[in-house]
Amino acid sequence: MINIVLFGPPGSGKGTQAHNLIEKFNLKQISTGDLFRYNMKNDTDLGKLAKSYIDKGELVPDQVTTDMLVDEVKKPTDAAGFIFDGYPRTANQTAELERIVKEVLNSEISVCLSLVVDDEILVERLLKRGETSGRTDDSNEEIIRNRIKEYYTKTAEVAELYKQQGKYVKINGVGEIDEISQKLFAVVEKIK
Ligand code: AMP
Questions:
Q1: String of DSSP letters for 61-105
Q2: What is the pLDDT of residue 42?
Q3: Could you identify the atom of ligand 1 that is nearest to the CA of residue 88?
Q4: Among residues 32, 58, 98, 172, which one has the fewest Cβ atoms lying within 10 Å of its Cβ?
Q5: Cα 86 to averaged position of ligand 1 atoms, centre (Å)
Q6: What pLDDT sits at residue 143?
Q7: Ligand 1 pocket, residues with Cβ under 6 angstroms
Q8: Per the confidence metrics, is the pTM higher than 0.90?
Q9: What is the distance in A from the centroid of ligand 1 to the CA of 10?
């Protein structure tokens, strides 16, 4: 299996690049942000809980996020592996993902692909996306800046953990979408 952690701050292009990677390598994408938005749209209990954090630009607590992820990983699939998009976002989630991939899939994380984008470009991109995304957390600069702050205080350390395992690969996330995809493809081809 190829199991990719697609990593980077909000607005770094994870969703867009996940889309290109799943097509190229027949992978299944699991986006915790998308799963929360699905639950919010359907007004489930999980959706209501998640909304109270997401609307402030804060991370949803680890336990509920991980439980939701496990349910998704357990669903049968004929994909060649997974792309984890937006998970893990804390050191605790990183350890949980390692355990889940081992226990449920009898596999391991192959690589952490990290998209690097300057903060001011992120803010610009997210405000622009907010014009059409309908996402409440894209709609205002204060919330966007809080999401970036959460990234530095709670999520950035995830990169360190994958660095220690020798699984961390950094890619410049600024440029043409296809050009960035080609760079990601080249890394995955090498580890396949
Ligand atoms: P995203 O679509 O990945 O930008 O996620 C949108 C929001 O969902 C984030 O700002 C968090 O509030 C929440 N979220 C998504 N994934 C996670 C996660 N792994 N842990 C905690 N909160 C998350």
A1: PHHHHHHHHHHHHHS---SSEEEEES---SHHHHHHHHHHHHHHH
A2: 98
A3: 19
A4: 172
A5: 6
A6: 98
A7: 10, 32-33, 36, 53-54, 58-60, 65, 86-87, 89, 93, 137, 147
A8: yes
A9: 9
Distance 135 CA to ligand 1 centre (A): 12
| Averaged pLDDT of the chain | 98
In angstroms, the CA 28 to CA 24 distance is: 11
Q: What is the CATH number of the domain that holds 68?
A: 3.40.50.300
Q: How far apart are CA 50 and CA 40, in angstroms?
A: 7
pLDDT at residue 181 tops 90? yes
Cα(177) to centroid of ligand 1, in Å? 22
Owning domain of residue 35: 2-191
Cβ neighbours of residue 148 closer than 8 Å, sequence gap 6 or more: 9, 10, 119, 122, 123
- What whole-number distance in Å separates Cα of residue 143 and Cα of residue 58? 9
Asked whether 116 and 170 are in contact (CB, 8 A), the reply is yes
Q: How far is the CA of 50 from the centre of ligand 1 (A)?
A: 9
Give the number of the atom of ligand 1 that is nearest the alpha carbon of residue 10.
4
Ligand 1, atom 14: nearest CA belongs to which residue?
33
Helix, strand, coil percent content, the chain, rounded in steps of 5 = 60, 15, 25
- Amino acid (one-letter) located at 147: R
**Token match 């909304």: residue?**
51
Question: How many domains, in total, are found in the chain?
Answer: 1
